[in-house]
Amino acid sequence: MTFEEQLAGIFPHEKDVPAEYWLKELHQKEFLINGEICIWKGPQQEVFSPICLQGENGISPRILGSYPLLTAREALEALDSARKAYDNGCGEWPTMTVEKRIQCIESFAQRMKTKRDEVVNLLMWEICKNYTDACKEFDRTVDYINDTVNALKDLDRVSSRFIIEQGIIGQIRRAPLGVVLCMGPFNYPLNETFTTLIPALIMGNTTIFKPAKFGTLLFQPLLTAFQESFPKGVVNTLYGEGPVVIPPLMTSGQIDVFAFIGSAKVANLLEKQHPKPNRLRRVLGLGAKNPAIILADADMELTVNECLLGTLSYNGQRCTALKILFVQNAIIDTFLGKYCEAVSRLKMGLPWETGVQITPLPESNKTEHMLELIQDAVSKGAKVINPNGSKSNRTIMVPAVVYPVSETMQLYNVEQFGPVVPIVPFENIETPIRYIINSSVGQQASIFGKNSDMLGKLIDPLVNQVCRLNINSQCQRGPDSFPFTGKKDSAEGTLSISDALRAFSIRTLVAAKAEPTNKEILTRIVQERKSNFLNTDYIL
Q: Mind listing the pLDDT tens digit for each residue in 445-460?
């Protein structure tokens, strides 16, 4: 069988889908507002899988179900629910003790774990994350929740004492900010949504969260867990078209924190709609074009393996992916040969198949967009140098290694967010350094080499351009205890477990002059537990 025949037959008949991974159509009517699971009777958005199935009428995308197309009215109802639950900081949730909020979060995590199989299967069918990675995303999210709980305990323990400075007694704790709007991305729809939603909740904010355009149905199994774990109005879900349901929230001026992971273009558009920009706190994860610099003395086997993972894990659809490789001329031929050989060994197929690494692309017309970028590069002197590179069948595409890429090509600057790997040869180290300096984004970079003198010289200028410099390893987010952010147009605010707690809260204190009357008042408040904020409890 030729490669073309294999590619043509990559999509199965329905009868060939393993029974344990088959997904019944899920036509979701439910959404959560003010502690009630409401039933929507209006129009629905159909959800099609990137996975196509063969049938009597040929090959077509499989319909997975549908979700509610809510309107501006429901968006404002969700906002009203969150505002009432916050109640200007007087609501049950923002005034609750840290220990009780932790109990609610832990209760949610336990309920969430019972839905693992459903969510993992939806991750495979909705966004074509392979089974292993879908399991990792779910499990990592549960671990993130538990680690967030432990980080808050540590933070609260430090705060559970009085400080006396210059005759002033004070207790400093972190207080919530208000209503948080959370919007996550399609490539990590569960994990990255929860990396803003969970810290926002645990710090006492009330929330509205809108699932990504792809990876929407996977939240349906969790709606009851949200309802049963939190007071009413603390969590509100918003489904529908972004341009319809988000502007009413922003123009109201009543969103206090905008947590968004996606494109800078969309973030900028939404931010401008808020009438009180000085009031709005932003936690943004935006674009990246992370480069790798491969020096002549790099360990070839390690470098190829790390670059393979960095460029093509989940088809390159990660903000932390290596999206352009700079390779020193002395080793360019050796690297290209070994890298292309490694790319050719990647298994293409469907998410549940063992060992599959290249899967269908969720975004409509994504393969066409990738081919346009490749065609632009080819028209300006580059070639697709790996066997079968860029061949496609509907939503699935063979990764394309494009070489040599120059600054005249779109691939040099555009964040391709897909299975296309641009490679730039260089002689002088100033070439990749100049690229990083001139780039409008600055999340991460990787350097591969052994010479400590050279690496040391590169570290100092590059850490002023990007927020994480990886030595002999791919770019990545983890571990979650490390800060995750970006410079320039890549991010605003920092997300790690401890940083996220700070991003969704603000230091607040109660202070009094150290006079006998005040000391007696403070002692009585603490001993008689008259305040949830002012206390010396130590959470174990």
A: 999 999 999 999 999 9
Residues making up the chain, counted from first to last? 540
Report which of 98, 93, 39 is spatially closest to residue 70, judged by C-alpha positions: 39
Cα of first residue to Cα of last residue in the chain, in angstroms, is 63
Write the single-letter amino acid at 291: P
- Cβ neighbours of residue 196 under 8 Å, at least 6 residues apart? 180, 182, 184, 259, 261, 283, 495, 500, 504
- Sheet with 26-27, side-by-side order of all strands: 26-27, 58-68, 44-55
User: pTM (2 decimals)?
Assistant: 0.97
Closest of 285, 287, 325 to residue 309, by C-alpha? 325
Return d(Cα 37, Cα 225) in angstroms, integer. 11
Contact 403, 382 (CB under 8 A): yes
Tokens of residue 353, six digits: 């198949």
The pair of structure tokens assigned to 501 is 């707690």
Residue whose tokens read 């140098």:
385
Q: What are phi and psi of 266, to 5 degrees?
A: -70, -45
| Domain spans in the chain, listed from the N-terminal domain onward | 74-285, 290-487
> Which amino acid would we find at residue 341?
E
Phi, psi of 272 (to 5 degrees): -65, -20
Q: How far apart are CA 144 and CA 198, in angstroms?
A: 9
Q: Tokens 């149905």 label which residue?
A: 217
pLDDT tens figures, 269-321: 999 999 999 999 999 999 999 999 999 999 999 999 999 999 999 999 999 99
- The residue ranges of DSSP E strands in 144-223, in sequence order, are 163-165, 168-176, 179-183, 206-210
CATH class given for the domain over 290-487: alpha beta
Domain 74-285 superfamily per CATH: Aldehyde Dehydrogenase; Chain A, domain 1 (3.40.605.10)
